[in-house]
TrEMBL record:
InterPro entries, per the entry: AAA+_ATPase, ABC_ATPase_HisP-typ, ABC_transporter-like_ATP-bd, ABC_transporter-like_CS, MetN_ABC_transporter-like, P-loop_NTPase
Species of the source: Arthrobacter terrae
Residue stretches in coiled coil: none
Any single Pfam family the record assigns to this protein: ABC_tran
Keyword ATP-binding: yes
Keyword list, A-Z: ATP-binding, Nucleotide-binding, Transport
Name under which the protein is recorded: ABC-type polar-amino-acid transporter
PANTHER family xrefs: AMINO ACID IMPORT ATP-BINDING PROTEIN, PHOSPHONATES IMPORT ATP-BINDING PROTEIN PHNC
Organism phylogeny: Bacteria, Bacillati, Actinomycetota, Actinomycetes, Micrococcales
Superkingdom as given in the UniProt entry: Bacteria
Amino acid sequence: MVKADGIEKNYGKLQVLNGIDMEVKAGEVVCLIGPSGSGKSTFLRCINHLEGIDGGRMWVDGKVMGYDIKGTRLHEQKDSEVCRNRTGIGMVFQHFNLFPHMSVLENLMEAPRLVLKQKRSVVRERALKLLDAVGLAEKAEAYPRQLSGGQQQRVAIARALCMEPKLMLFDEPTSALDPELVGEVLKVIKDLAQSGMTMVVVTHEMNFARDVADRVVFMADGQIVEQGPARDIITNPQHPRTKAFLASVL
Ligand code: ADP
Ligand code: MG
């Protein structure tokens, strides 16, 4: 589903990603962990080509998403194709980024209607089912400001799913929440993982990573330092940097 081959990304002189190779198979759940500033968010944005890359190549679902913008373009690709491929990738951010002037239901329906041009009745039915699945059926007509942070994040997840993505990317989905609201959001993500969705989740919730991820990838300074089965990495890390990081968050 995802193949990253030698991804490099610079901001000016700062090298943020320093040759990331990573594969995610269909149905796999990968948790990306690492210290702040290690390039986790940048890497997620490179997966769906919200960021151009300076080296390497990114495939999603067998299609080239991003390519080395300086090097030779082996695969000529129009921006419109990148946009079309991007519609198959859902992304959920730390700050839910709901449309404040739209009801919950309208938030879910907007992109499928506008981008995918799907029929109103079809989208509405799907949106209501998704709201039910995240436990918010009764909030369809509410506005984001009337919801708790945990509820808003569940709406954001349902909104991403309403595009029927093949891949979901989560960037610290619970980091902005009050501690008592973290569990309800993790449960929704866990249910989604168990439904077979392919996902990459950046998180500091190590219990979640241990229980839900098939694989954990530890990044530091723009490189993958260590990766493996979730239980191995979290309970028995090998690399000193992984050990130090886990000691600081557990
Ligand atoms: P993480 O998500 O692991 O905390 P980020 O990917 O957000 O790390 O950031 C990696 C590095 O890139 C940091 O040093 C950060 O300051 C820098 N960075 C991120 N986004 C930008 C940007 N748009 N412009 C300049 N520097 C950036
Ligand atoms: Mg980040």
